[in-house]
Design a protein that fits this description.
The chain is about 55% helix and about 10% strand. A two-stranded parallel ribbon has the order 1-2. By secondary structure, it is mainly alpha-helical. It is globular, with a radius of gyration of 13 Å. It has five helices and two strands.
């Protein structure tokens, strides 16, 4: 299952997306993730789901790095970005880590 969000800009193509401009997208992805986990279980969902964010604009580098850090190490050293990820997803601690643990989750944020 692949969920994709496409954002295109002609005016701000070189301006990085700040986390606040990604909030609705991340909230939507998290809502779908949580609904599927409830229906199918965490392990199954992590093996079948993929969230893609596609844009001609870059993502704020520090926020992108925090997403990758959570995915690869299950920790985020930037406390402000961790707080935003928790707020946007409605997930904390082990649930937030599990949502990003699969290599298919948050895979295409470039």
């Amino acid at each position: 299952i692949t969920y994709s969000q496409l954002k295109h800009s002609t005016v701000h193509a070189n301006d990085p997306f700040p986390p606040s401009k990604l909030k609705n997208t991340i909230e939507g992805f998290a809502k779908r993730y949580k609904a599927l986990v409830k229906q199918l279980g965490k392990d199954k969902v992590q093996s079948i789901i993929r969230f893609n964010f596609v844009s001609n604009r870059p993502i704020s580098e520090d926020f992108y790095l925090s997403i990758q850090e959570l995915k690869e190490t299950e920790t985020v050293t930037n406390a402000n970005n961790l707080r935003k990820l928790e707020e946007f997803t409605g997930l904390k601690n082990k649930d937030l880590r599990a949502s990003c643990k699969s290599p298919r989750i948050w895979d295409d944020w470039t």
